[in-house]
# Entry
Amino acid sequence: MEDYVIEMLHITKEFPGIIANDDITLQLKRGEIHALLGENGAGKSTLMSVLFGLYTPEKGVIKKDGKEVKINNPNDATDLGIGMVHQHFMLVDIFTVLDNIILGAEPNKFGFLTKDEARKKVMALSEKYNLKVDPDALIEDITVGMQQRVEILKMLYRDNDILIFDEPTAVLTPQEIDELMKIMKELAKEGKSILFITHKLNEIMEVADRCSILRKGKYIGTVDVANTTKEELSSMMVGRDVKFAVDKDEAKPKEDVLKVENVCVKSKLHNKDAVHNVSFNVRAGEIVCIAGIDGNGQTEFVGGLTGLEDISSGKIYLDGDDITNKSIRYKNTHGMSHIPEDRHKHGLVLDYTLEENMILQRYFEPEFSNHGIIKKDAMREYSDRLSEAFDVRSGEGAKTVVRSMSGGNQQKAIVAREMDREHKLLIAVQPTRGLDVGAIEYIHEEIVKQRDSGAAVLLVSLELDEVMNLSDRILVMYEGEIVGEVNPKTTTLQKLGLYMSGAKRDTGKEA
Amino acid sequence: MKKILSLLMVMALAVTMLAGCGSSSASSDASGDASYKIAMITDSGDITDMSFNQTTYEASKAFAETNGLDFQYYKPTEDSDEARIASFNNAVADGYNVVVVPGYLFGNMIIAVADDNPDVTIIALDVSEGDLGDYTLPENVACFTYQEEIAGYMAGFAAVKEGYTQLGFLGGMAVPAVIRYGYGFVQGCNDAAVAMGIADQVNVNYVYGGQFYGDDAITAVMDTWYANGTQVVFACGGGIWTSAGDAAVKVDGAKVIGVDVDQSGTIAAKYDRDDLCVTSAMKGLAATVDATLQDLIDGNWSKYAGQVENLGLVSGDDPSLNYVQLPTETWSMTNFTVDDYNTLVSDIFSGNVTISNDTENMPATDITVETFDNIH
Amino acid sequence: MNEKTSFSKRPGVQTLLVSVLCAAFGVFLGFIILLLMNPAHAVEGMGAILRNFFKYDNNITTLMYYFGSAIVKSVPIILCSEAILFAFKAGLFNIGVAGQYTVGIIASLYTSVALGWHWFFCVLAAIAAGAIWGFFSGFLKANFNVNEVIAGIMLNWISLYLCNIILGQETVMNVSKSETYDIAEKNASGLLPGFLQGVFGNNQYMTIAIPITIIVAVVILFVLNKTTFGYELKATGHNKEAARYAGMNPKRNVIFTLMISGAIAGLAASMIYLTGIEHYKISSSVPGMGFNGIAVAFLGGLNPIGAILAGFFVEYLTLGGQYLNTNYYNPQVADLMVAIIIYLCGFVLFFKHLFSQIGKNKAVKKEVQE
# Structure
């Protein structure tokens, strides 16, 4: 008999109108890294919520070490040694690393904190698993990667031996991902059992021992990663074959649409410029990509370009029109579409319905309003048309509150809106962030279609696959400057990596 | 105070007993008494204000209990004529036919309801002609005002004679009754100082709090006064005495003077100091309530009907019969004795001492009076 | 499935049920308090509060009169809660409504009593005063990122002292009574025109304030739900960054919103003070109206029409207290009950969540059975 540490057998969980988990079985062996793969909305989160006692399943049992257990709330799960690193970290920004780790499990003697012991334990764990953290740094001052290590230490500190990672790489840079993979392997070697929720096939291939696949609430199967391929996994996940390469013809660039001259943006963190002297152009009918490691000024640059942040100097021209100091509304209505980096922060009003979000930049146009009164019918029709065209799925159609939609459909709604708006320039920042391969494929195709129909596309992405596949020209940004331009057809990932890490600069772009 | 009360009680008892014995055939006693139901309506304060409302409430209630009559008090939902009228109608709807109301605020209520409710007797304390405009009181209403200036005068006179030279007056709102107390107090201080030849040494600080309850802002002003040498403050207006008291306990030797009723017990209880209250400038609210109600049930209402009576001194020989007085039962002053007080009362009664009841202008004095801006 | 269960799951219906639940629970707790204070008369006491002015059922004129009074008195609290919920929809917690209400008092009483203006202009003055006061908070928030709660609280105090100074002048304040003069006495044209006074037992305080309040609520409902302006405000309220991304002007909207909110608060003051039912007295604290309005707004489910019902309910209970027999109960028990209900308003969202959970589970069970 196999040594299963956790077994979830024949779990069924229903919600009104939808069966989120339909007879799902998941068995986690001791000391393995087990990937849980599925598209957005496949039921991964529901299954984990069942494991954590947040939902009570209608059918099915959960066993720990072969014995049936009842998990009625998260405390039960914690008592069983189950810990989770959430996609969005649960950390107190203004506390130190150490305080965050011991928070909720503070060691004390007679009610007095005994931090020294805690510090020793944390440092020992940090040493053992090679999780480098500065225990006295404030959370708000450390990188995302380090925050994630703090989350992991939190679980280890509580002596959890079943560790769940919920899409842990979504927020990490390539280097940080590599490091995380190492840490996970290390943890498994030490006997921890890891459940790894993801839809990134590369990562599964790299670290996982086995992989269970869910699709539309149903259990598809469990495979040994050693005996499978990316293609097989993806077709199991999506239910059809998926292309990884993007089909596209040679670009036929025409006139300049976007022209950026010596743009600088001040940093909010330090006295130097976050974006320094950036100049380039994007022509109609081409996809230009700004590549780079996260935090090298891409966000600030896009902010300056779109008007969300002030630029300190430089000029921006859109189709020959100087838009440097124009309002966001002016840019919106004069040919700039923008798929923002953070769909929750900028892209959507989560508490608005789908239809209300669809007209977010256009509600005042005569098409949607009459003397300041919104034309509800026009809004409804427009939303339905876009949802249909871009396959945006939602529970209650146009009047679904966007907060209740899956991340992928939220992103699709934004993509639909931005692509449908009249534009000459499409700025797409991380357009496939957090999406599954099916949705990624779709969005990539749409972006290429935009190019082919004559729009200029500025893509900002951290995903090297995406950068290499999609773009016609690549600009690499490092510490706020464009340090090089490469042709994706003639360059290699290694060469790109040198630019991204600041080891190489094009002539004429020296500091 | 207690003397008046007990005296009246005895009188009341005697009268009822006499009436009961004398006219059993007419049965005016049993049925007559039972037909009276007494209600009291509070003004902007509550029945726990240790002052005006409380006194009226307690007196009315005690009378009702003694005579076996129904009694209830009503508290308007807010400080407005409309709410007071609503309380009155509410009381009438509950079957009450005698309504006792304390305070000038009830003027408009009386105008609004008196004519429409001829069967309801209204006894209004501290409501003057000025509060009624050109309204002619109907038979079912009696109003009483007091010569507060006399009580204030006596308190001021006594305090200076006792040896205090730095005094203060803390009024509530600048309404006529409070002004009369205050100006009377200033006159009393002045006359005593002149008599003692120390007019150049006596100072009076004079201020209105702008409300009938104490708060931090008022306490702060009192703190300043006491810190700058004020020895005693005449706290005059509802619950505002708490601000004077709070400030006084912080300074050695600082004292207060109470108002309306003998507040020495109240003040002593609150601060656990029985030397804090020098004296109190009293007006006979309870006595008025008692006597009027008694006359009413005895069938002697006609002497009050439609009248506004201005109550003051009624006896030069027995100060305890007067409607304005100082408390002799709890007398604590040593330099100014009860005998001195009796002399003062008879002087005022006889007209040897005249006290102005003008509320327009601060009385002219030889002592220094420093007037402060209203605190609120 | 979705269609069939939609009625009880509709957010509006849920909000209504939750508010009613809150109110009922508050009344129930009030009853418990009565029981604890004096068990023998609790039923009678509760009956008196709930029966309220229906006590005068033998005299229909008096009954209608006090019904009218209850309506008149609920006007300012309803309007204050409208002001609060309007700002709240735009993500602003306008605690400055109290101050905006106070400057509304200054404007309406000063213009009517001291300047002898016609009521229409007095009302306009009150609206303008409230709007200016709201503008201050909005301006500070938009340009210097001063939290509107902090600015609001400080402006509340400033308004209070301004009010005491301006209305304390002898042209407005009847010094011998320590309250402002009767408007009727000084300037009859300053009083609001009557409204259905005959129906309400000749209640002279029944004025056009009542229809105006209803119109204001309907207009707010319309603006919030049907107009581009409402769309912008709510978007800004839900997600300021997304509003900026969409090209809206959050700064302008913040100022606009607080000005409108302030204008409604100013209107609220004029709608009660210009009936003559209340006089201003020198006070050491801002009128509680602005704060109670917060609770009423929540009790009304942040719905402009809900606020009307909630405001009237709260006023009804408040007025009910005077009918308690004071020999058994302190009349402030009613205030305590209102306080409890207001406290429970904080739980409206909690109840709502609970309610939707119950709804969900039922729906699931039903589905399973099917």
User: Anything to note?
Assistant: Residues 1-33 of chain B have pLDDT under 50 and may be disordered. The interface with chain C takes residues 71-80, 82-83, 86-87, 89-90, 93, 104-105, 130-131, 173-176, 210-211, 215, 217, 374, 376 of chain B (CB under 8 Å). The first helix of chain B runs from residue 2 to 22.
